[in-house]
Amino acid sequence: MSKQKTQVQAFTLPTGDTDTSASSDIVKKYLFHWPLFVLGVILFIVGAYFYLQVTKPTYPIVATLEFKGPTSSEGTVIGKNGQDANLDPISTPVIVENEIEVMQSKKLMYKVVNDLQLWVNYQSTIDGKKTDLYKQTPLTFAFIKANNTIDGKGEKIKVVIKDANSFTLIDDENGDKDFAYGSSVKSDFGTWKLTPTTNFNSFKGATLNITVNDPDQVADDYQGRVKVELENKDAPFVNLSTSDQVPSRGKDILNELMAQYKEDAMSSKNKDAQKAIDFITVRLDSLDRDLDIDEKQIEVFKSSSSMTDIASQSQGFRDISQANIKASNEANLQLSILEGIEKWVDNPKNAGALPPTSAHLEDPSLMALYEKLTVAQLKKSDMLATIPESNPMFNSVNEQLDALRKAFKDKISAMKASQLAIKNQIANFQGGIQAGLKKIPEQDREYTSMKRKQASKEKIYTFLLEKREAISLRYASTVSDSEIVDDAHAGKAKWPKPSIVYALALLFGLAAPIGLLYARESLNERISNRKQIEDAVNVPILGELSYQEDTTPIVVTQGRGKFAIGEQFRVLRTNLSHLHGNSDKGRVTLFTSSIGSEGKSFVSSNLAVTLAYASRKTIILEMDLRKPKISGVFGLSPEHPGISDYLAELKTDIKALIQPSGIPGLDVLGCGPIQPNPSELLEKDKLDELINTLKETYDDILIDSPPIHLVTDSYIIARTAGAVVYMIRQGHTLKDELEFINDVDNAKRFPKFTLVFNGIKRDQFNYGYGYTNSYYSSYNTYTDKDKETIGSKIRTFVRRF
């Protein structure tokens, strides 16, 4: 367990990455490039200064409009008493949101642009600056005839005010020409003229630049710049705002926009009111004609039906009918009484008695006869009491009684005939009354129908008549629903503000280098730090080596001035010992890389020197049989017989091939003459014999081999190695090679496969503190530190960009 722990620790170097937070590393990485930040800040500050010099200030323009009439934000229009108010557009509630859209419409802005002539721009150079001459122009432009062919960028006219009578038109193509004021000038976009203004005398000899634009495009531009907003939904105040480099022009635009809106609203309201009045008038005329027809129909109906008032007439009929019934009953009663008396009179048995009488008999003559008859009968009765009936005295009495009876009977017959006549007359009259009563419902229905139509039209007629009078009165005194609370006024310049511009310049001066460095790092296809390696591959990193600017290949022999790089190789030597484990003699280490110039020859040769300094007998084998470098590193002759001679069996004495390096304990076995078939030579068993023989003599055998991404030699040699060290160089090895390294590791092509991160520029890439800081920097303060040359200082400074 302890060995495994030691081995893992061997591959984890005490770099600054483990002691510094990610944010601190980022800050240090960017601080290394401080000259770039200083340059960026200076450039942006200078740019901000010139920007402030050439940029004209922009002023905010604001105005406020109030809606005083009834307003609605729900879009519902309701008249008084719940009636439809569409016939009265003047009193219709204003929907503020709709009015805001009207104020922002292209139609109104187009009117503003034309009324203020904003489609023509006048500029002149005053005190070295181009100045907008709104309301200060010495000349005004006017079309005599437009061709409607104005370019999208506007037509440019350049004139020089020559004198009080003429001006010079600058024409680079056809030459300059003089024209009198008010005379017509023909151009591609139309015929036009220039007229002097009251400001003419202040611009004699000046050059005037006139730009004629398409009014539609100018209206679109100003429409997008003007904002109309409802300040509060509960309060009918609307704010209008815009911005302009000429405050007077901005104020004129808002004031003219509000005026145009009010005029358009009044015109629209009056137009709608007039339409309503005209409609009501036409409708009233139609209703008047209809009412005349209906009234004539009622008149004819009443005349033909002999009707004045159906209700009174029907009531009269009912009263007459009741009276007739009563009279008929009375006649029946009289007839009944008379018939009873008549029967009594006609009965012979009742000759000596008085006839019955009734209180219902109303005829006075009959009652008089009855009284006479009663008196005569009583007289006879009194005489019978003393005189017998056969007495001649009764003759006159009997004659009187007979005469009275005859007269009484005749009277009853006459009265009976009279009552029968009355009864028949009543019956006839009652039949007419009943016929009249039967016609009354039908007449009432027809009359009610005609009256209903007439009443309905009369009601509509009255309503429309009142509505027309009301609208006419309001139309005569129409006022606007809106009122200007604040005329357009300009505030302080909102842009450019020097403090904000310089603050932004400082911000961009710092942000631009950051963006540049980030982009440069993102676009960099080469490996720049250890984290990129650890995130991409699972192969452990054996060690890290700093970049060296010296041309001397063996850097660990340069004395104490190279303490840092020497110490890094000592750490690498220690880690290599842990990598090989318990092996103490005959350790074989193969050095390779993906491509050339990644430092395998530099690392293998300096590590060999370090091993020799540790009293380990070491030999380095120059097995890059295609492009050998080791012999040159140690200053040995490349012509000396070497490995190729041995593998080709041209030389068999290994000791004769080995050369001393000049460093105690370190030998070199060179490549020898370059052969045409190095791969075939390396596949021979002679290579295994060579390595086994060297193991008996040397503690460490280091093999410098070719890059494996170019040739397969390293794969062949790897069978003899106990460990393989793969070189990755900062700023040189491509990131794509990390995937290749993973493939090699997954294929298990190398034993004890490890990596060395070489050529690290810790300051430039912010790769931790490195071995040049902290303890090692302190160590250099009391060692003989090499003096930096001017060239190295310049190179270091340039790398900071």
UniProtKB/TrEMBL annotation:
CDD domains associated with the record: BY-kinase
Swiss-Prot/TrEMBL keywords: ATP-binding, Kinase, Membrane, Nucleotide-binding, Transferase, Transmembrane, Transmembrane helix
Pfam families for this protein: GNVR (PF13807)
Transmembrane segments annotated in the record for this chain: 31-52
An example molecular function term from Gene Ontology annotations: non-membrane spanning protein tyrosine kinase activity
Main enzyme class: transferase
Record's keyword annotation contains Transferase: yes
EC number of the protein: 2.7.10.2
InterPro entries attached to this UniProt entry: Bact_polysacc_biosynth/exp (IPR050445), GNVR (IPR032807), P-loop_NTPase (IPR027417), Wzc-like_C (IPR005702)
Domain spans labelled Tyrosine-protein kinase G-rich: 446-521
Record's keyword annotation contains Cell wall biogenesis/degradation: no
GO cellular component, one term: plasma membrane
Matches recorded under PANTHER family: FERRIC ENTEROBACTIN TRANSPORT PROTEIN FEPE, TYROSINE-PROTEIN KINASE
Name under which the protein is recorded: Polysaccharide biosynthesis tyrosine autokinase
